[in-house]
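Quick start: what a row looks like.
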Amino acid sequence: MCLALLAIVGCRKKEINKLKDEVNDLKTRVTVLEETCRQNNTNIVSLQTIVNASSENDYVTSVTPVLNDGVEIGYTIAFKNQSPITIYHGKNGTNGTNGTNGVSPIIGVAEFESIYYWTLNGDWLLDDNGSKIRVTGENGTNGTNGTNGTNGENGVTPQLKVEDDNWYVSYDNGETWNFVSQAKGDKGDQGDSMFKEVTYDDSFVYFTLANDTSLKIARYVAIVPIEKGAIKAAFSVADGKQVYFSQGNLQYKASTSVWRFAPNQYDIIGNANTNIASDYSGWIDLFGWGTSGWNSGANAYQPYSTNKSYSDYFLGGDKKNSLTGSYANADWGVYNKIANGGNQAGLWRTLTQEEWEYVINGRADALNKKGIANVNGVNGMILLPDN
């Protein structure tokens, strides 16, 4: 009898432990489903913001990884005009038990006749009338004869929820819900995320969706204020470092010691440079190396110097010295005021060899941002700005 009782107690203990494990598994699965649902709804709002930002030519100002226990699970994206968003990659959950695996619904967007519409698991998300649902709002109608036009309609933001082990979607702010798929056993893995990939370079942030739709938003260049005389576009000359180029070649009038920028990149003095002299009243735009007018220790350092031996232009008498550090004043823009370039010394400089190599060959998409051309009869290289 005692042995029989011990056997019964032992069996019941195993059943209780099994029941506890099943309850814990259920709690874990519910937690995973709830977190997956929360992240999906966050991604839906974020995706709508991305589409709005793209249509309104907004800019991305920062991309910050979202970490969970030191593991990257998404990004926080800040815009110049839109509110910040968070994008989740998706996170591995646990396998379901006691039932077939469910499938997380994948909300996406696709373009049709230049308008983005919502999709659900690769198919168009349709309203009760069978019409595709726009991501962004419609434009309002124009007014006539002094009468105000009608306001445009706002875009629809789908919502997801899990209830009774099923996924549901709403596109009327939660007033009604439509069955999508079973949620029991949902894994909530990365393949269920609506975002397949988020990448970025110096110029753009690229968003690739699970349905392979791709959107890109230009990155905002927040650098020093644009100086007078500059082309209003930024160029990367090192990782995380951008500059503006002058509107045209540097020019000098010896008789008045005035510096200026030519109106256009292709403006050149040409043969008139041969008239150079310390009292020449015309403009020149060809100079020996380091001839800013600052005494660099070279034999020739004036902008009107015409020495024929290149060794006469060595800064400090050494060809290894460059227009940086203790010899920075040999740079024309560092030492001189440029009349139409802010009229203050130190606002301009020449690029270093490394910076030239980077802007021509090293920056993002460099190959497609350069080319040879003839502009206004002048042969030269074209460099396009970063974005």
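That is the whole record. Confidence is low (pLDDT under 50) at residues 91-102, 140-146, 148-152, 185-191. Residues 2-55 form the longest helix (54 residues).
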